[in-house]
Amino acid sequence: MTTTYAALLRGINVSGHRKVPMAELRPLIESLGHTGVRTYLQSGNAVFTTEADDARDEELAAELEQAIEGHFGFRVDCLVRDAGYLAAVADACPFPAAELEGRQLHVTYYSAPVGPEAFADLDAAAFLPEEFRLGDRVLYLYAPDGLGRSKLGEALHRPSRTKGIVATSRNWNTVVKLLEMTRD
Questions:
Q1: Number of structural domains found in the chain
Q2: pLDDT tens digits along 119-155
Q3: Is residue 102 in some structural domain?
Q4: Which end of the chain is more exposed for a tag (fewer CB within 10 A), N or C?
């Protein structure tokens, strides 16, 4: 049985640092025994299939992190999620995604569950019209002026809030594209 996954690499190809060319990432993922490898954008998004019946997201992520470090010489945090999970995240979006521009809606994927206590000190009303909601190992952020101008996004993504948990964000356009790629 084959399962399709998306790999989300954190913090690569930003301002010329931690360069991971997608043309090198694809064969690296294939060398791990995965097939149908495709990448999207230069920001660390890959889709692949695997035959491993008992593969787990965490094991696949650890395997990919180790391979990247061995090939490129630096560690990159990776999250790996199966197609069903990506679909569930899209379906559970609490904001009217179809009515918004992709740059206005973001999803932060977490390596572990994050509860409301991580954001208890945040006065959400002070950031309106920006809003956020938590989901299954994700945070949905509505930022009408985009993430680059989002004060709420800045407050939400302080490392102290989710200490020890890997987090990586994607705009809604990327969320949808990765979901489409896992269905192809």
A1: 2
A2: 999 999 999 999 999 999 999 999 999 988 999 999 9
A3: yes
A4: N
